[in-house]
Protein: DUF2064 domain-containing protein
Amino acid sequence: MNRGTLIVIAKEPVAGRVKTRLQTEFTAHEAAALARASLVDTLNTVRSARASRRVLALDGDPGPWLPEGFEVIGQRGDGLDERLAAAFEDAFDGTPMVLVGMDTPQLTADLLSVRWSGYDAVLGLTEDGGYWCLGLRKPDPRALIGVPMSTDHTGRDQLRRLQDLGLRVLMLPTLRDMDTPRDASVIAAAHPSLRMSRLYRRLQHAAHPGLLFEQALGGTTRVVATGIDGRTVPSLSELDRWRSPADEVDRLALSRCEGPVLDVGCGPGRIVTALAERGIPALGVDISPRAVSLTTSRGAAALRRPVQERLPGEGRWGSVLLMDGNIGIGGDPADLLRRCAELVRPDGLVLVEVDPDDDLDETAPIVLRSSTGRRSTPLPWARVGTRALLRHAHAVRLHPTEDWRAGHRAFLTLRPTA
Structure:
């Protein structure tokens, strides 16, 4: 379209306000960054297309992501149908208008080269039932007001509305919107040179470990822990068991506990819940909001806090637990045992689940990998067997009182040295 107006309708890419459906796999800030990259790709394409004017109808404030050559108008209206109708009215200068959104970064300048001869409107549908493009020769609120938006039949309803008004409609190719993580993956694979695609690849290999742990706890995706070399870490890949109620081996370990009990790295709370059912006062601590939420939803007590920060009952806990390989937290077993010795009372108990390999003493970082392809940044961790743990315990003045195995799991109990 050599003569006419190209309109981009968009939201300011602010975390928490855009691309919330991406947050099943990405943080709010990551989702906003993907939205911003998609918007920049779209704006750059529109800037390179042939047009007499380029307008950005924006909900929010422009930022450094906005290239030169665009007039900015604010959005007005309540629903999306009203905002679209208002954008056409506010941008109209007597020439045909084509409006696109910010969710199709794969858009090309050729797609926007509309030949209006013989047509009154333009429509490009999306694979999810919506539409990525709408063109009108002149604004007409009847073409938009009342059309149901954000449904799997919005595109069909919009086409029917245009035809009911007697408009001759030029259909453009169907594109895929970037609404879900799957959409982002498909677009990035098909169009690797996009800014959005490059960012997507970086984010895929640099997820925050806490995010993947949250997803695993929520059951939205399967997550495994591996070493840097990619080999699975068995003791950290049993999240299904962590989400289940305490099993027979757990209950055997808990029979050693003396209340009150502090469960370090409580996860979804199966241990704290089992202790509460026995009538033993217990508190779980974890840095995961979802873990704390799951624990409290079971009727048990939990606190969101790193173990190294100040905790309730310092030096008065009857037992401190490091179950499920949590001796590895932070990657320094001696430092973690020293902290447990500070938390427990002088005659208290520190119960540690160790690796079944007695000789294992490994402090290499781990990486969390999700079934959706995301990989976390390295997480400091340790894996120790009985012999290594005894060395670390001796260094912080904890002495062993019991060493036992149940099934494929191994445990040690320790007490402060008098």
